[in-house]
Amino acid sequence: MRDMEEKFPRGLWVRLIVYIAVGHLFAAFVYLLFEVGAK
Question: pLDDT digit string (tens) for 1-39?
Fold first, then answer.
């Protein structure tokens, strides 16, 4: 387990989680725009 922690520093994990969260929010926003626009 020690090698994994050295390979992926804490900052990288935080950045990865932030990117995933922002990506999902953006996708949900675009999806809502299309849903509202289709009606």
Answer: 666 666 778 889 999 999 999 999 999 999 999 999 987
Q: How far apart are CA 8 and CA 11, in angstroms?
A: 8
Distance CA 23, CA 17 (A): 10
Quote the pTM value: 0.58
End-to-end CA distance of the chain: 51
- SS3 of the chain: helix, strand, coil, percent, to 5: 90, 0, 10
Which tokens sit at 20? 């995933």
